[in-house]
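Researcher: Sequence of Antirepressor AbbA follows. Predict its structure.
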Amino acid sequence: MKQLMNTSLKKVSERERTAVLRLEMDYELATLFEAIEEKDEKKIKLCKQKLEKIRLELVRLKAF
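Model: Prediction complete. Tokens:
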């Protein structure tokens, strides 16, 4: 029973983390769009790095 509860709690926390990551991804995409419009290469690079980290974490969460 305890294992079942732990598994259930883990799934809930993964779903919550996935939702947060999607919101972060939306924000970073909007920021990237602004940076592209402003032709701010430094900001573009930073946004792409953040998006890559988010992508990797989303992939990791989906793998389990």
